[in-house]
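Researcher: Here's my situation. A collaborator sent me these components and asked whether they could plausibly form a single complex. I don't have experimental data yet, so a predicted model of the whole assembly would be a useful starting point for our discussion.
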Amino acid sequence: MASVTVYGTPLSPAVSRVLACLFEKDVDFKLAPVDMAKGQHKSPDFLKLQPFGQVPAFQDELTTVFESRAICKYICNNYPEKGNQTLMGGRDGDLLAQTSVDQWLEAEGQSFNPPSSALVFQLAFAPMFGFKQDPAAIEQNEAKLANVLDVYDRRLGESKFLAGDDFTLADLAHLPNGHILVSKNEDLFMSRKNVGRWWEEISARPAWKKVVEMQNAPQG
Amino acid sequence: MAIKLHGQPWSNNTVRAMAVLNEKGLDYELCPVDLRAGGHKKPEFLALNAFGQIPVFQDGDGSVFESRAITRYVATRYKETGTDLLSASSAALETWLQVEGSQFNPPMFRIIFELGIKPLIGMSTNMSVVENESDKIGTVLDVYEAHLAKNKYLAGDEFTLADLNHMPEIYILSKSAKFDLIDSRPHLKAWWEDISARPAWEKTAVSLPF
């Protein structure tokens, strides 16, 4: 039935990025757990799927893909007739619309992701796994992220979503880290009027809510 | 309107865009942005890229920022001109494009910024950053080495955008004392020798200050 398998846990931000895309696209999938505590992600079998030993990995009847943003693009390109039709920007052949999505997806990966991932580690994962928090790292990364969010706030004052009028992969890519950060320090997003408006809208999408349900379910 | 590329030839991100334009045999004007004078923070520049970063690409249809979005745009818009840089399965191409941006570039940039770029812009190199990042990048490069033992190019049998996007940083590294990171890995070394011998790359390289 489901010929798509995603390897990893929904608690991993990168995995949850892919799950959000699959729900948006109405593509059925099976989630195969990878026991990181037992080092399964470094096992020879897993390294065949993902040679860097990281989650997620994605497999369908045709091929294997890794890197969450690459998986999202692959899903959009290879299941074009399913679910959300505008995740990659506009209708067929609108290159400028697609380029706008690419541009903001790159901004997410290069500007938003590094400081937000560092903060997610410090604020959520460090306490969870018993590591000591580093106040200097928290302060530096909050400052970097604040600069990025200021740019976003100006953009979202002129544009409904990052790439244009439609919700796209560029917005979706922010959901995993955004969700964790807002739960730890809502002010970061919500004190900025346009970022706050955007965040409320994108995090209320049914596809994202399904991912959060998976994250909140007992992990087994 | 002719193609304009706003940036600097000492910036690896600008070089990425120059490389794709040369692969496509496209004429363009390199418009220098004076970062020391705050050119990237002026309203006219922020109107093109609100992040205040180089490069920015402009042609008759619009403007694009983020070097990897620029290279993607040029490769797609001008697919029928020059080499087709997208000739690979979507799975392999998307994966290795992303691997460059997420796994390879962060540590590699930190190394080449210290060794290659800082000296050109009047800043001093921090060798402990170089050593730390050189240690960390080894595991990433080992994955590349194993992959290139089985694949001629990153996304398969043909040179694609996935290979091209790596070139600025490796070139800058090749001018530094840390090139052994590539040179000591036979398949990485062979791949670099092949792709850097491309006439389009040689045309890019001669215009650079490294």
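Model: Some features of this prediction you could bring to your collaborator: The first strand of chain B starts at residue 3 and ends at 7. Chain B has a mean pLDDT of 97.
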